[in-house]
Amino acid sequence: MTTILDYNSLNYAAYQPKGYPVKHKRKVPFKPNVGLNPKYREIIKEIRECDSTLEGFILSADTYSELLNEAYSSNVHWSVKLEGNNLPLDEVKRLTTLFTKGDIKDEKRSGPAQEILNHLYSFFVRDLFRLPWNIETVLKAHSMLMEGTGTSESPGAFRERDAAVSDANGFEFFIACPPKHIKDEIRNLAGWLETSPYDELITSVLFFHEFESIHPFDDGNGRTGRTLFQILLQELGLKNCKLCRFEQEMLRSSEIYYNLLAYTDDSGDYEPLIMYTAESLLRAYKDAVVSFREKDHLKEMDENSRTIAKNAKSVKSFSVQDAAKWVPGLGEQTIRNRANELVTMGILEKEGKTKAMRYSFKDPFKEMKVRTKKAASTQTTFQNAAK
Question: Which residues of the chain register pLDDT less than 50?
Fold first, then answer.
């Protein structure tokens, strides 16, 4: 894959609002007008190529778990750090590893630790975030992220008072949507999401910015918005962005990040924010491709093993007889030997005996997914589900 992009194609530090406080502008109906830098098409093309490349790697379950834990812990750390969570990255990684292994239930949970666990839980409860979205989707996301953290008075409830974002000295940066309009504007935004004429990245950025501008909650707006943003990217087609440490790229300069949000509100010009987000995401994707390529097992396999491993990734389970259709001309015993080698490598797992033996691509998070799906189906909170 050829790199065709010069990073930081715009001077993002130059984009600032004309003055403060910036005020939310009511947009009902929500009809954003987007003009784009010509480089954007190159960026989104390369992002999609990276996403497809990540899909093609074959890793052992343990290695995949390790790399995904690194991405999850990094994204959570950067997102909550911006809002005052002081847990160091090493501690977030430790909690992430315990969580994905299902060993978290005996942990003593401070508010900051619970916040980390809530974010991790949201990554696995995917059924709650299937499109189309509505007001309930937004409320459930906020409740899920903020419950038990001690930072929100009313998880899962829209604010009922005026809100302004201020610094420690009381200087007002932003005045949010009046509470009487919040439900209407969130409903309108969710409705727009169903008919957005833009691609997956632009749609996600526009949704995220408008959500932050509405500022629907007393606390946790940034954390909820960034979580919904990443989930939306996956729902709209970039399913492997979860493997990327995107938040550290996006939030490395909090000043640029906040100024771009304010500039967009003030000017109605979405281009700089879209480009900044796209370039941040591409850097994260390219780093992920490098990390996964180093651990890829395909390069050490023979052609028949590659074929079996790639096909195994796309089916729920398979028998030796099924695999024989993927590699015609190969005897069943040879196929069984190849499959068993993949089991030894930690890529496949098997169940049953002799002719009833079935193989499947090994998912290190299978038990966690079952637990979180059960918890979500009964509307159980994470705190109870993890006990």
Answer: 1-5, 379-387
